[in-house]
Amino acid sequence: MVDLGTTNLLLGIMAAVSVIEGLLLIGMGVGGFMLYRRVTTAVNDIERRHVAPLTAKVNSILGDVQAVTARVQMQAARVDSAISETMDRVDSTAARVKYSMRDRMDQIAAVVHAFREVVGSLFERRAANY
Length: 130
Hints:
- By secondary structure, the chain is an all-alpha fold.
- 96% of the residues lie in helices and 0% in strands.
């Protein structure tokens, strides 16, 4: 007959190793879960102690920046409007001065032209008399 003692021994060793591997896997799962809980607790603690106050400060700073930006935009719009109005007034004034000077220069030119004609006619009469 065949002796199955060696085969049974090897099967027993394999079964024991399988049980040990199963226990190790269960132990690693429990250890992993415990590690996960510790890490989650640590992350929540860090978030509560450090991230939340920083978030509040950053939000406060962003609110201030938005207020300043709004004021700057409003002031820039006012300055732009003032510059546009000033440029329009300068253009209007320049046009009025231009037409006013043109009228005055036309009057002066007419007076000079009339004076030249009078002087020229006087010289022509004197030249004709001599």
